[in-house]
Amino acid sequence: METGKEKFTIEKAKQIDMVQYLASIGHQVVKVRGNDHWYLSPLRDEDSASFKINSRLNVWYDHGIGKGGNLVDFGIAYFKCSVAEFLDILNGPNSIQKRPKISPKKVAPEDPKIIIEQVSRLTSPSLLKYLRERRIDLDIADLFCSQVHFNLAGKKYFGIGFRNNSNGWEIRNSFYKTSSSPKDYTLIKNGSENLSVFEGYMDFLSFVSFKGEQSLSSDYLILNSLSFFERALPVMYRYEIKNLYLDRDNAGRQATLKAMEIDATFRDNSNLYDGFKDFNDWHIRKENPNLQSRPKPPRTKRSL
User: Which SUPFAM superfamilies does this entry report, sorted A to Z (predicted)?
Assistant: First the structure.
């Protein structure tokens, strides 16, 4: 840092422009959508950008680990240090070449919210084609999903909708995925003492398509975001056996290992799709190993 300047306090550090700060430490934006700046996560290894900075709010969120916050929170996670140590880094002479700018306080309109306009049975040829491509049984999809038409910033869209426990929707098609508020997990009961846990509903639909009638021997918890794992623990503890089918990335593996350390009734079933990123990826390619992995569609902007 330049000498003779006032030192950063916690409050001043929180006002540093995060987009500029990430650029100063060597992390460049992959794509920009409105106020959202997407990056390959600086906190872990990944192939598709799932780390977001909202430049209007000047906050970050890493979808892969379900955590976010302000610049101080980021610095603690990035440098694996305390608050005091991060402030020393900001105030030190060798941290970055130029003193980062403090974001001016401004009032801006809120991000547009998704407005659900119509919910119906799945009939769209494009959505049915997408489900077939992902090897989802259409009768299974018809049982658990709907066709959701929604309005976002005055424009109309539609996709495959999966309802959560708070009546919000996880929505996706072949081009994107998004969600409406409120965000929550989904619990599906079949009267079983065993629970099968998935991160996303495409993995759940793949599992039920794969298992057929055997799938009725379990209840299901679809997190809809790994960030709901800890919140859903009280639900999981009601079951004698908790079968985990989480993603085979760092965040999914860490959540699985942590759960198994806490309670021996958690079981890691992800070895079934070892070498693949998740259950659906394995389900698509298990009979055609030469098929390239389908990239996950990006998430569209929604209100925080």
Answer: DNA primase core, Zinc beta-ribbon
Q: What pLDDT score was predicted for residue 72?
A: 92
* Same-domain pairing of 83 and 140: no
Contact 213, 190 (CB under 8 A): no
Non-local CB neighbours of 212 within 8 Å, separated by 6+ positions:
none
pLDDT at 147: 97
Same domain, 185 and 273: yes
Could you give the angle at the alpha carbon of 156 between the alpha carbons of 152 and 158, nearest 5°?
100
Residue-number span of the structural domain to which 243 is assigned: 123-144+180-285
Q: What percent of the chain has pLDDT over 90?
A: 50
Note the pTM of the prediction, 2 decimals.
0.62
**Is residue 23, in this structure, part of any structural domain at all?**
yes
The continuous run of DSSP H or E covering 170 comes out as strand 169-172
Angle of the 71-79 helix axis to the 83-91 helix axis, nearest 10: 100
Both 85 and 137 in one domain: the answer is: no
CA distance 227 to 54: 18
Q: Which residue has the tokens 């077939």?
A: 132
Residue 270 maps to a domain: yes
Q: Are 193 and 241 in contact (CB under 8 A)?
A: yes
Angle at 9 between CA 57 and CA 55, to 5 degrees: 15
In a domain, 216, yes or no: yes
CB atoms within 10 A of CB 15: 18
Based on the fold, state whether residues 79 and 127 are members of the same structural domain.
Answer: no
CA distance 171 to 168: 10
- The token pair at 53 is 């900075």
